[in-house]
Amino acid sequence: METTKVSKKLLNRLPGYLNHLKTLPQEAENVSASAIARALGLGEVQVRKDLAKISHTGRRRTGRSREQLIRDIESYLDLSTVTKAVLVFSGKLGAALLDFTEFEKYGLQLQAGFHLHGTAEPDRTGCPVYPIGALKEYCTAHSIHIGMIAVPAESAQEACDLLIGCGIRAIWNFSSALVSAPKSVAVHNSNLTVSATALRIQLQEQQYKNM
Fold this sequence. Notes:
The protein is built from eight helices and eight strands.
């Protein structure tokens, strides 16, 4: 996958396209960019440009083959390659992520959880949980390259530093605090409080327009 030639925004949109295509009924053999745009609330021109970058099939009038487009997106995102990850957590959000079973559909395999300030917890989902002291040995032994963080804001940087010290190359941060990492380490923030605020403001704007 030549990610250096595309924007991060495109890479963020592609999983949404893929999920939408997979939820369409089987009888929907073809799908158009305009239909995808309407379903996802995106601009039609943007969707057409995105699809043109990752797929060269389809006709203007009949649209693109849904199955072929699914294969093209999965191939572009390299979903056939599974990347192993660990989770440093504390609290209910981390426990919920351990129970989430959809990661592997998108090429991410959560191998284990590490409780930042506690001991090992019962294995509820097949994903084992260890005390934080076992993190470095586990990452080294299993060649882990992605670390996930789901801890309170005040502990986020501590968790980040621990992961970096284990040789982690990319961090997925679910905490409400931003973390500092070397340029060689990719960081993606999924701040639920920011998303909640943005959604609330959008709702207020819609209500104002409808007045």
